[in-house]
Write a structure and sequence with these properties.
Layout: H1 2-24, H2 32-48, H3 52-64, H4 66-69, H5 95-101, H6 107-117, H7 140-150, H8 163-177
């Protein structure tokens, strides 16, 4: 028994040393060209078969490279109502995310809806008195109804500001109700 305890201590020391070694080696950052190649390859894979693993991979890369996948919005962006409601703002940065959730036949319309609703700004609040928030301008009641059914974060917990989750919920809502839930869709 004493011999076994020594082996466990040696194993624990070896694991601690390995953990310290890996912690000391910083992760290699991806440059823009590498991220663009990864994104193109990911999109091809997602077009073939969108799996939970691919969605998790996207979320991981987007979390580690936020400024590449979600560059800061322009400071002149306004909310729906006064915001470029013609659907012409540059929302192409959201195309891979939208393509991962919507059928190819709906990607252009979804991007147009995003342009008209938020201008592509995932942190925007509607400034005309409604509770609409985020990339897709979800109302509090709509968001909380979907979050309750799906077990996600509530509106108060900041759920609509997560562009990945908001796009997933937008797809859910679109499958159930079509584009009628978004005012901007009428102009797309």
């Amino acid at each position: 028994m004493r011999h076994r305890g020594a082996h466990l201590l040696a194993l624990a020391a070896l694991l601690a040393a390995a953990a310290a070694l890996f912690a000391a080696v910083p992760a290699r950052a991806h440059n823009t060209a590498e991220l663009d190649v990864w994104q193109a390859e990911w999109t091809l894979s997602a077009d073939t078969a969108l799996t939970a693993a691919l969605i998790a991979e996207w979320a991981d890369m987007a979390d580690r490279h936020r400024t590449h996948f979600y560059p800061p919005p322009p400071t002149t962006t306004r909310s729906r109502g006064g915001h470029m409601g013609n659907g012409t703002s540059d929302v192409t940065r959201w195309e891979p995310l939208v393509a991962a959730h919507f059928p190819a036949s709906q990607v252009a319309k979804a991007l147009c809806v995003i342009a008209g609703e938020s201008g592509g700004n995932p942190t925007i609040d509607n400034q005309q008195g409604s509770s609409a928030a985020g990339l897709w301008q979800f109302l509090r009641t709509t968001w909380d109804r979907i979050a309750a059914r799906r077990g996600g974060p509530t509106y108060a917990e900041g759920g609509p500001y997560d562009p990945i989750l908001a796009t997933d919920y937008a797809h859910d809502l679109w499958e159930r109700s079509g584009w009628s839930q978004w005012n901007a869709a009428a102009r797309c």
